[in-house]
Amino acid sequence: MDEDCAPAEYDERPRVELTPAAAALLRRLCEAHGPLMFHQSGGCCDGSAPMCFPAGEFRTGGSDVLLAELEVAGVREPVSFWMSRSQYEVWAHTRLIVDVVEGRGSGFSLEAPEGVRFLIRSRVVGAE
Length: 128
What we know:
The chain is an alpha/beta fold and 128 residues long. It contains 2 helices and 7 strands; from the N terminus they run βαββββαββ. It has helices spanning 20-33, 85-91, and strands at 16-18, 36-40, 51-54, 64-70, 79-84, 94-102, 116-124. A hairpin with an 8-residue loop joins β4 and β5. It is globular and about 35 Å long. The two termini are 25 Å apart.
């Protein structure tokens, strides 16, 4: 991770994990779309869910933080997980767990046609 991406006041970065269901869905999506990325904006409604895009399709910049390069068994390239800097400031001490549930999420996220959606489950780091 590029050290310039993370705010200096946070020494402990959140950890991002995938549930087995999320990893299985990422394998299917990668087969169909190639390398992938996540972005979580922290907005309301669908904006609070992690959005999955083909890698590079969502433009990131100074207002985003790269939290992880997720290694997924069966996927050649790591899946980057980005979060808006303002959301990161709220979740900086949280373990993020990417999961999948039934139901339709945002039409912009790659999993939307699958009848499922990604969501974040979380735990405060150190409270586990």
